Amino acid sequence: MTKPESTDLADRPRAGAIRRPIHQILVPFPVAYFAAAFATDLAYWGTAEVMWYRFSVWLIAGGLVMAALVVLAAMVDLFRNQRPAWIHALAYAAAVVLSILNVLVHSRDGYTAVVPMGLTLSGVVLVVLLFAISPGWTLTHRYRIGAKA
Predict the structure, then answer these.
(1) What are the beta bridge partners of residue 82?
(2) In this structure, what are the phi and psi dihedrals at residue 110, rounded to the nearest 5 degrees?
(3) Does residue 2 fall inside a structural domain?
(4) Which residues contact 39 (CB under 8 A, 6 or more apart)?
(5) For a FRET experiment, which of 16, 40, 98, 108 has its CA 20 to 30 Å from that of 4?
(6) How many domains would you assign to the chain?
(7) Rounded to whole angstroms, how far apart are CA atoms 18 and 16?
């Protein structure tokens, strides 16, 4: 006689739940802010409407705040049995440094604050960020016991 299958969730085995690194959850936010800043720079270039310029400045500043949170979370992840993915972490750091320069360029007044330097920087930041997050929104790798590094 076979035992009937249990419908109780406590009796079911867990699917190997893999804990995601903390920073991996936060990385999409600065990427979205910087991508939106590039889009608003393009809109400003096409319309010369001051509203788009102001949106760009706020989006870049918000992206920098979120990037700082990602860096803090990545540092916590490094203490939680992670190792850095150096090329992607350095690309992410380069994008943050370029964004700091970009917010300074955008802080100038007038059309020349965005065109051509601000628009170019926004585009470069977006390309560098897309490279940095290409391995799956992560800047670290998990150590595995018995696996080759």
Answers:
(1) 142
(2) 100, 180
(3) no
(4) none
(5) 16
(6) 1
(7) 6
pLDDT digits (tens, 9 = 90+) for 92-107: 999 999 999 999 999 9
More confident residue, 104 or 82: 104
Q: What are the φ and ψ backbone dihedral angles of 84, each rounded to 5 degrees?
A: -70, 145
Task: Give domain status of residue 3, yes or no.
Answer: no
Place of tokens 């860096």: 71
d(CA 22, CA 6): 34
Model confidence pTM above 0.85: no
Residue type at position 13: P
Residue 138 in any domain: the answer is: yes
For residue 114, give the amino acid letter. Answer: V
| Residue 119 burial (10 A CB sphere; 0-12, 13-18, 19+) | buried
With residues binned 3-state (H G I as helix, E B as strand, rest as coil), the percentages for the chain, rounded to 5, are: 65, 5, 30
